[in-house]
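REQUEST ID: PR-0412
SUBMITTED BY: lab tech R.K.
PRIORITY: routine
TASK: structure prediction, single protein chain
INPUT:
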Amino acid sequence: MKKKYKKVVVGGTFDRLHLGHKALLRKAFEVGEIVYIGLTSDEMIKEKQYSERILPYEKRLLDLIKFLEVNKYRNYRIMKIHNAIGFTTKIKSLEAIVVSEETYKGAVLVNKAREELGLRPLDIVVIPIIRSRLGCKISSSLIRAGLIDPFGNPIRREEK
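STATUS: complete
OUTPUT:
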C-alpha cells in the first residue's frame, strides 16, 4: 500500500509507553514510508512534571525499540533531541509531522523554524487525544503519579 508521505517525523519523551504514544507512532507509520522519531534527551525533560520519575533516555530508547520490533516496524530512525525543534530543520526532505491535539503547537513551532530557514513547512497530521477510563487524557504524568496505568485504567489505592 502506498503511503501518503515518504518521510515523516514524530517526537516525544515516550516515558512509560502508553496507548497515546502507541497511537501516535502507529499513525506515523500509517502515513509515512520512513519515520524519524525524535526522542527527548534526559537534559530536555528536567522541567517536566515528576521529572525525577521519568525513565532514563537509554531505558526509554529500549522500550521504544521493543514496541517497534513487536509491531514489525522497520523503516525508522530514532534520534536524540535536545529541544522542541530537534532535527526537523536539518532533514530538509521531511514532508509531515505527526502530533496529538495536545502537541499541535509544537508542530506550528517546527514549521515556523523551517520557514525561517527557507524550508517547506511540514504537513501536520493530528491524532485525537486518547482518554483514560477516568475520562482524562492518558499521559505519562498521570502514570508517573500512580493514578493510571499505561492502558488508561485507574490504579486502585489501598485505603488506609
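NOTES: The chain has a mean pLDDT of 92.
REVIEWED BY: pending
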